[in-house]
Specification:
- By secondary structure, the protein is an alpha+beta fold.
- The chain has two domains: 356 residues, Up-down Bundle (Outer membrane efflux proteins (OEP)); 81 residues.
- It has ten helices and eight strands.
- The strands form three sheets. It has a four-stranded antiparallel β-sheet with strand order 2-5-7-8. Strands 1-6 form a two-stranded parallel ribbon. The protein has a two-stranded antiparallel ribbon with strand order 3-4.
Length: 456
C-alpha cells in the first residue's frame, strides 16, 4: 500500500480506536459466538446507528432529558406529604405567671409547668404552586430541550456516518490496491524468469537477474504491509460500528470512477436547515432566550397555596394509643404571596449574564453559517479537482501499462535494454500508486461535499 494511503489509514485508526475500547470489547466478545456479517455501506451505517457507543449515549441523553422534564413538570403538580411524631418531655418547661392568678400576693410569681410528658401528632400537608414564572418557563422549554437532545443525536449520527463512509470505501479501494500489487508481482515474476533464461543463454548479466529479484522482494513486502494495514482498517471499522472484534465482516459494495463522480455537484440545492449542527445551534439560541425569560420572571411575585390537617394527643403516661382517649384535630390553609422587592441587584446581573450568553450563542450560529459556506465551497473545489485528477491518473496508468508492455516485448526480442524495462516498471508502479491515491481522494472529497451540504 502506498505511504499516503497507509498513513491515512493509520490516522483514522488512531482517532477511532480508543486505548480502552479494545480491552473492554474483548471481554464482551469472549462471551458470545462470533458472527459473520456481509454489509453494504447502508447496512454498515444502520448497524452503527444501533450499536455505536456515542450514538447510544446520545440517545440516553434524550432519556435523561425526558426524566428532567418530568421533574420540572412534577414541581407544578400538588405536593402531598404525611408526617407523624412522638415526643417525650423529660423535663416539662416551667413558666412564671403572676401569683395573683392563683390567689397569691400581687407582685409575686408562681412557677407553673405547662404540658404533659407524652405528645404525639400525625397528619398530612399539601402545597400547590399557583403562579411562579420560573416554573412556567421551565414547562415551556421542555419541548425545546428534547429537540435539542434529539438534534444532538443527529449530529452524532452524521459524524459516525461520515467516518464509516470514509473507512468503508478506503477498504473497498484497498481491494484494487491489492489487485494492482498482485498484477505487478506477476509481471516481475515473468520478467525475472525471462531475465534468468537470457542470463543462462548469455544475453543478460547476473546483475539484471538480481535486480529483478530485488523488485519482486520489494513487491512481496509491500503486499504484506498492505494486507496488514487492511486488517487494521477492518478493526477500526468494527470499532466505529460498535461490532464485536471477533465477528467477521465482509464489504459487499464496489466503487468505480463513474460512481464517485455521478450526481454530486448536481445536487446543489442547499439550505442551512439541512445541516443538523446548524439546527442544533438554532435550538441553543432558543434555550438561551428561555434563560433570559426565566430570570426576568423571577422578578415578579409568586403565589402558592398550602394546607395541613393534623391530629394531636397529649398524655401524662405512655398510653397514647390505648382506649378511647381524646385526639384533637388541627387544620389550616394559607395563601402565600411573595413579592420580590430588592435582591442586591443579583437578579439584574443574572438577566444581563443570560443576555450575554444569548448573544454569544447567536454569534456562534452566525459564525457557523460562514463556516458552512466555506465548507461547501472548499468541498466543491476539492471534489472537482479530485475528479479531474482521477480521470488524468486513470489515463496515465493505462498509458504506463501500455509503455511497459511495449518495452517488455522489445526486451524479449533483444531490442530493448534492462534499464528501459526497469524504468517502465517503475513508471507503471508510480502511475498505479497515483491512481489509487486519486481514487481515494475523490471518494473522500465526495463524502466531504455530501457532509457539507447535509446530504450524508
Amino acid at each position: 500500500m502506498t505511504n499516503k494511503i497507509r498513513y491515512t489509514l493509520k490516522g483514522m485508526i488512531a482517532l477511532l480506536v480508543l486505548p480502552f475500547s479494545g480491552s473492554a470489547q474483548s471481554a464482551v466478545d469472549s462471551a458470545r459466538t462470533p458472527q459473520v456479517h456481509e454489509f453494504t455501506i447502508q447496512q454498515a451505517v444502520d448497524y452503527a446507528s444501533k450499536n455505536n457507543v456515542q450514538v447510544k449515549n446520545a440517545l440516553l441523553d434524550v432519556q435523561v432529558q425526558q426524566q428532567t422534564n418530568r421533574e420540572v413538570t412534577g414541581s407544578a403538580y400538588p405536593q402531598l406529604s404525611a408526617n407523624a411524631n412522638l415526643v417525650y418531655n423529660a423535663k416539662i418547661p416551667v413558666s412564671l405567671v403572676p401569683a395573683e392568678f392563683f390567689g397569691g400576693n400581687q407582685g409575686e410569681f408562681a412557677e407553673v409547668a405547662f404540658g404533659l410528658k407524652w405528645n404525639s401528632t400525625y397528619g398530612a400537608a399539601v402545597s400547590q404552586i399557583l403562579f411562579d414564572g420560573q416554573v412556567f418557563t421551565g414547562l415551556q422549554a421542555r419541548g425545546t430541550l428534547i429537540d435539542f437532545q434529539l438534534k444532538n443525536v443527529e449530529v452524532t449520527e452524521q459524524a459516525i456516518r461520515t467516518n464509516i463512509h470514509k473507512v468503508y470505501y478506503q477498504l473497498v479501494v484497498s481491494k484494487t490496491q491489492i489487485e494492482l500489487i498482485d498484477s505487478n508481482i506477476a509481471r516481475i515474476r515473468s520478467l525475472s524468469r525471462d531475465t534468468r533464461i537470457m542470463y543462462d543463454n548469455g544475453f543478460a548479466e547476473k546483475m539484471d537477474v538480481d535486480r529483478a529479484e530485488v523488485q519482486l522482494a520489494n513487491l512481496m513486502t509491500e503486499r504484506v504491509n498492505a494486507t496488514n494495514q487492511i486488517r487494521n482498517g477492518y478493526l477500526a471499522l468494527k470499532v466505529l460500528m460498535g461490532m464485536p472484534l471477533r465477528d467477521s465482516l465482509r464489504l459487499t459494495d464496489t466503487i468505480s470512477d463513474q460512481q464517485v463522480a455521478d450526481g454530486v455537484l448536481e445536487a446543489s440545492q442547499f439550505s442551512y436547515e439541512q445541516r443538523p449542527d446548524f439546527e442544533y445551534a438554532n435550538l441553543g439560541v432558543k434555550l438561551r432566550q428561555y434563560d433570559v425569560q426565566r430570570y426576568k420572571l423571577s422578578k415578579i411575585p409568586t403565589l402558592s397555596l398550602n394546607g395541613y390537617y393534623n391530629r394531636n394527643a397529649q398524655r401524662d403516661q405512655f398510653d397514647i394509643f390505648k382506649g378511647n382517649r381524646n385526639w384533637f384535630n388541627v387544620s389550616a390553609f394559607t395563601l402565600d404571596l411573595k413579592v420580590p422587592i430588592f435582591s442586591g441587584f443579583a437578579v439584574n446581573s443574572r438577566i444581563n449574564k443570560a443576555r450575554l450568553e444569548e448573544r454569544k450563542a447567536t454569534n456562534l450560529r452566525e459564525q457557523l453559517k460562514i463556516q458552512i459556506d466555506s465548507d461547501i465551497e472548499t468541498a466543491r473545489n476539492n471534489f472537482s479537482a479530485a475528479i479531474n485528477n482521477l480521470e488524468y491518473q486513470k489515463k496515465n496508468m493505462a498509458l504506463a501499462e501500455n509503455v511497459f508492455n511495449q518495452t517488455k516485448k522489445k526486451f524479449e526480442v533483444g531490442t530493448g535494454s534492462q534499464t528501459e524495462i526497469n524504468t517502465a516498471q517503475s513508471d507503471l508502479k508510480l502511475a498505479q500508486t497515483n491512481y489509487i491515491n486519486a481514487l481515494y481522494n475523490a471518494i473522500i472529497a465526495r463524502v466531504d461535499f455530501l457532509k457539507a451540504t447535509g446530504k450524508i
